[in-house]
């Protein structure tokens, strides 16, 4: 039984061919085979993802020192509620995770639409814009530390060159500008990526629909809102969720550039967990585990509400 | 047949056992050694030489050395200790109480403590037992460029301590001529910015109240504290610190002071020499640099202008889980002599916790330098430890962010700073 | 399209391209200049171009070791991921059994797990099993963190393969394993290469797990090695830039080579 329209076997199948046919031609369930295929993956998963996750939750109810573990019940959680550094970190991270998708994807969309018309050298541009994403956050962090350098970085040098010398700042040293500066860096990284994906999505839109809209004398605005948007909606939403999740997890960039300074302006939950686990004058791993457990719940709630908001449930099941 | 073989078998076995026994006895014991100071040549040279001498005197012991930068060392130790992979001997500073609290350090009660200054031993004591070899001790000194000072027309009094007004004038004069009054940077360290604040507070409050303040028994909203912070704020607003203060790294701050662009003064630990007396192309000060040292200025309404901080700095500790405790202890003992103390002063030119006599120094540079140190320390009353060695947990973290970083940088004012510190306890 | 509009468009594109690629080009230039030259003029072209800095970085600054470690760990991890992931994806896509969707959902949902929820206990666990500070330990952790994404991409691809291919294979007497190896995998090559590239890029640049689980100099990966150079020695900007280039170039090469495939693969998942 062939699923209708499932003839194309390349990556650009469209929606109609989804919900693949899971027809199993055998009558008996080949449990042996199933186990054999799934076992390696599930073993790795249980050993290095599931078990550690549960163990972290277990840790959160204890004081975990090198030679002993002591059950402290909800004491860590009580301390967490009063911990203003933690809540500052949460605010910073969520601000980042909300601001980034808005900035990255809107700019990417504008640029992708501008490029929708045929432009020479498209392939070159695509590779050039994609390169920021290929760099490790460590590399990006070091580069931007230099770019934001007060004395000789290009940002301040450019400001001085055009006569705006008194606008120069220690961008990463001032609590007011540190976080926006970092958000700017991640936008620099990811706009290119989002643009390339959106461009590919735009190019794979069925030509007939666009042409039909043009024949109906739709203005650019109307064409955009009523025709193009609905068609690339799934891609847009995917990118937004991806960007959101990515920023909730961010660690490397902050660690290389500001480490959460100044005055916790760039403190994220991941840097705070690392500091509490490995840099404070204690060996206790229980409290950082508590932070991790609470953060996990927050991330889960945020992502679930986001996907509910976009009603992506069919995407998850697929 | 079997009976005939048996005696020869036994003889062979016995021979094997005997020879391996002898071989083990002659086997070299290797101790692993991790230390900071990879880039600080005087200290590194001193320790490497000490190790060479120790190995020469004890042929059965060899030390495998790895030299690190401080942040990398601390990060590596934290996890290695927990993972049971820590070295036999490693560098530590007395503020790392968590090592002692968790039983990671070797009890060093058996060392020759008669050769060590009592306050240095005290810095490393936990529950009555000593755990560290206090090699480095340092005071906070105000280094300055004699020539620039003379050019600005500022006269440093014989007491070596400027009055608060004279100091503020000095700051303004320097700033007017485009010279940064004081080089300082907190880009990669949690304590330099706080030197200005804690030395001022120590003088204003005196030893006992300063101690109470740090330990949370005196409120940060105390009027004397607020007044001192206001005075410091005045200095900051007059342009005391470089505008790259928050991102300037320690090594860069040294260069900022003595080479490029050159500042008037530099408030740093007396281990300044470990970097500054390197050759100039390795980050050291230029040849014939007119180095002067003065005392931290008097503070208005101070209880004790003679008070200053002294801290035990780089020390060596033993791993409690070491397989060679006797050898580790023997290694530490090799440092505890008058000659070693004096050699440290000669080579490294920083104070030490080992009993020594700066008047008996032989190297000319060292003798001159220690004369200057002796002058600034004349008549001093000491408080032991800098704030980050005394504070722990949340107060320490907030202190680092507020008093080391934001307040000296001028990003928060006195009221905010006081509020944040008060909320931390 | 009117010429003015075209000109503006091209201007916009070039402006954005210099913005996106600018830092990379600047780093490339600095990698060929010595630090003294750089401090004299931060934006000049390299003259002369010091190509020997690369060999100096490789041999004297240990970048050779870091590069070798990264290669070892990432290549092994990607290999294991491809095999284990495709096996699991094939099974989930083509066999119906009660727990199928449950397992798929559990595996997929861990994509949103923040790393903190596992990193602390992973540290404890690896210490317990003597895998702390070892390349093997890090490789296994890398497999675990990329498994959900790999399975997600591959499963959706395997599921789209028309089943009459499998029916035909079965009728020809192929065993389950042969069906997987000889039918599924070859057809799914685009998706498989997508996951290979994605995993390679993500793991080559991975930092958080590496910084927690590896502290020994001899086992450091490239991101850790670079971080070590921004320690508190006098900042050798020129040398660091050279090191950055050593880290970036492999990934750029891999990407430029496979760029078409990657975009195809990504939009396969994105466009429905």
Q: How would you characterize this protein structure?
A:
The complex is a heterotrimer of chains A (318), B (425) and C (272). By secondary structure, chain A is mainly α. In chain A, 68% of the residues lie in helices and 2% in strands. Chain A contains 13 helices and two strands, in the order H-E-E-H-H-H-H-H-H-H-H-H-H-H-H. Chain A has helices at residues 31-60, 75-82, 84-116, 122-134, 137-147, 154-161, 175-203, 207-215, 220-248, 252-257, 269-278, 286-310, 313-317; strands spanning 62-64, 69-71. Chain A has a two-stranded antiparallel ribbon. Chain A is globular. The two termini of chain A are 19 Å apart. Residues 1-26 and 313-318 of chain A have low confidence and may be disordered. By secondary structure, chain B is of the alpha/beta class. Chain B contains 17 helices and 13 strands. Chain B has helices at residues 2-26, 41-57, 70-83, 97-101, 118-123, 146-151, 164-176, 194-214, 223-237, 250-258, 272-276, 325-333, 338-348, 364-376, 387-390, 393-409, 414-424, and strands at residues 29-35, 61-67, 89-92, 125-126, 129-130, 132-133, 137-145, 182-183, 265-269, 291-294, 307-312, 315-318, 381-384. In chain B, the strands form three sheets. In chain B, strands 7, 8, 9, 10, 11 and 13 form a six-stranded mixed β-sheet that branches. Chain B is globular, with a radius of gyration of 25 Å. The model of chain B is unreliable at 18-24 (pLDDT under 50). In chain C, helix 1 crosses helix 13, helix 4 runs parallel beside helix 7 and helix 4 runs antiparallel to helix 10. Chain C has 272 residues and is mainly alpha-helical. The model of chain C has no long low-confidence stretch (mean pLDDT 83). Classes of the chains: A mainly alpha (318), B alpha/beta (425), C mainly alpha (272). At the A-C interface, helix 1, helix 3, helix 4, helix 5 and helix 7 of A face helix 1, helix 4, helix 5, helix 6 and helix 7 of C.
């Amino acid at each position: 039984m062939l699923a209708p329209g499932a003839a194309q076997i390349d990556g650009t199948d469209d929606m109609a061919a989804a919900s693949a046919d899971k027809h199993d031609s055998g009558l008996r369930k080949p449990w042996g085979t199933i186990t054999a295929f799934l076992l390696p993956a599930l073993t790795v998963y249980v050993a290095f993802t599931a078990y550690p996750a549960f163990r972290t939750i277990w840790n959160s109810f204890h004081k975990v020192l090198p030679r002993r573990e002591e059950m402290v019940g909800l004491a860590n959680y009580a301390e967490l509620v009063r911990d203003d550094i933690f809540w500052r970190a949460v605010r910073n991270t969520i601000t980042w995770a909300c601001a980034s998708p808005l900035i990255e994807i809107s700019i990417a969309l504008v640029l992708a639409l501008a490029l929708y018309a045929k432009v020479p050298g498209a392939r070159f541009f695509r590779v050039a814009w994609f390169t920021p994403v290929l760099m490790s956050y460590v590399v990006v962090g070091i580069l931007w530390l230099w770019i934001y350098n007060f004395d000789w970085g290009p940002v301040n040098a450019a400001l001085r060159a055009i006569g705006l010398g008194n606008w120069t700042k220690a961008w990463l040293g001032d609590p007011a500008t540190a976080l926006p500066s970092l958000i700017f860096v991640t936008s620099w990284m990811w706009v290119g990526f989002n643009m390339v994906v959106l461009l590919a999505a735009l190019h794979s839109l069925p030509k007939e629909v666009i042409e039909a809209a043009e024949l109906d004398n739709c203005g650019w605005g109307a064409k955009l809102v009523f025709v193009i948007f609905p068609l690339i909606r799934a891609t847009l939403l995917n990118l937004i969720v991806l960007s959101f999740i990515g920023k909730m997890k961010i660690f490397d960039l902050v660690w290389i550039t500001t480490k959460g300074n100044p005055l916790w302006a760039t403190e994220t939950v991941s840097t705070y967990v690392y500091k509490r686990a490995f840099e404070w004058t204690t060996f206790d791993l229980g409290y950082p585990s508590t932070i991790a457990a609470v953060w996990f719940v927050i991330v889960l709630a945020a992502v679930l509400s986001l996907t509910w908001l976009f009603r992506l449930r069919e995407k998850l099941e697929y | 047949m079997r009976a005939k073989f048996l005696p020869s078998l036994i003889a062979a076995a016995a021979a094997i056992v005997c020879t391996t026994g002898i071989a083990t006895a002659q086997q070299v014991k290797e101790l692993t050694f991790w230390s900071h100071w990879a880039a600080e040549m005087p200290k590194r040279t001193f320790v490497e030489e000490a190790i060479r001498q120790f190995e020469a005197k004890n042929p059965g012991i060899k030390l495998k050395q790895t030299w690190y930068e401080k942040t990398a060392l601390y990060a590596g130790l934290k996890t290695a200790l927990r993972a049971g992979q820590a070295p036999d001997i490693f560098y530590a500073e007395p503020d790392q109480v968590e090592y002692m609290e968790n039983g990671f350090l070797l009890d060093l009660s058996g060392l020759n403590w008669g050769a060590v200054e009592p306050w240095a031993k005290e810095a490393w004591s936990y529950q009555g037992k000593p755990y560290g070899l206090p090699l480095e001790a340092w005071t906070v000194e105000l280094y300055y460029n004699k020539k620039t000072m003379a050019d600005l027309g500022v006269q440093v009094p014989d007491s070596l301590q400027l009055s608060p007004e004279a100091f503020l004038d000095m700051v303004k004069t320097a700033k007017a001529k485009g010279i940064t009054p004081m080089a300082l940077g907190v880009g990669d360290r949690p304590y330099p910015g706080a030197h200005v604040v804690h030395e001022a507070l120590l003088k204003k409050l005196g030893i006992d109240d300063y101690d109470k303040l740090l330990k949370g028994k005196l409120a940060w909203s105390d009027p004397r504290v607020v007044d001192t912070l206001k005075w410091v704020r005045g200095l900051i607003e007059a342009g005391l610190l470089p505008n790259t203060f928050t991102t300037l790294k320690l090594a860069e701050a040294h260069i900022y002071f003595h080479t490029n662009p050159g500042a008037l003064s530099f408030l740093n630990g007396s281990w300044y020499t470990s970097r500054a007396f390197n050759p100039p192309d390795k980050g050291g000060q230029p040849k014939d640099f007119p180095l002067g040292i003065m005392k931290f200025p008097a503070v208005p309404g101070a209880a004790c202008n003679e008070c200053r901080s002294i801290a035990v700095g780089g020390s060596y500790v033993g791993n409690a889980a070491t397989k060679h405790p006797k050898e580790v202890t023997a290694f530490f003992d090799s440092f505890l002599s008058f000659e070693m103390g004096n050699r440290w002063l000669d080579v490294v030119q920083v104070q030490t916790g080992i009993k020594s006599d700066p008047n008996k120094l032989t190297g000319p540079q060292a003798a001159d330098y220690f004369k200057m140190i002796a002058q600034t320390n004349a008549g001093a009353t000491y408080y032991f430890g800098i704030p980050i060695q005394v504070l722990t947990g949340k107060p320490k973290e907030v202190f680092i962010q507020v008093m080391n970083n934001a307040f000296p940088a001028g990003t928060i004012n006195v009221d905010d700073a006081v509020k944040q510190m008060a909320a931390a306890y | 399209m009117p010429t003015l509009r075209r000109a503006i468009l091209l201007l916009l594109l070039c402006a954005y391209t210099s913005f996106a690629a600018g830092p990379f080009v600047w780093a490339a230039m600095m990698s060929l200049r010595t630090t003294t030259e750089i401090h004299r003029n931060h934006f000049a072209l390299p003259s002369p171009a010091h190509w020997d800095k690369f060999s100096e970085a490789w041999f004297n600054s240990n970048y050779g070791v870091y590069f070798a470690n990264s290669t070892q760990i990432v290549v092994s991890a990607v290999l294991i991921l491809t095999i284990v992931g495709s096996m699991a994806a094939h099974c989930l896509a083509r066999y119906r059994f009660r727990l199928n969707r449950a397992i798929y959902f559990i595996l997929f949902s861990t994509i949103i797990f923040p790393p903190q929820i596992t990193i602390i206990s992973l540290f404890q666990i690896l210490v317990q099993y003597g895998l702390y500070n070892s390349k093997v330990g890090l490789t296994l952790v890398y497999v675990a963190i990329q498994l959900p994404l790999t399975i997600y991409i591959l499963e959706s691809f395997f599921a789209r393969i028309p089943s009459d291919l499998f029916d035909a294979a079965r009728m020809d007497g192929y065993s389950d394993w042969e069906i997987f190896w000889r039918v599924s995998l070859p057809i799914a090559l685009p998706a498989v290469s997508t996951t290979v590239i994605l995993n390679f890029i993500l793991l080559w640049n991975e930092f958080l797990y590496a910084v927690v689980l590896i502290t020994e100099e001899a086992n450091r990966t490239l991101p850790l090695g670079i971080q070590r150079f921004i320690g508190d020695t006098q900042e050798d900007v020129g040398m660091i830039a050279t090191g950055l280039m050593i880290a970036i170039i492999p990934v750029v090469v891999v990407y430029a080579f496979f760029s078409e495939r990657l975009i195809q693969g990504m939009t396969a998942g994105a466009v429905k």
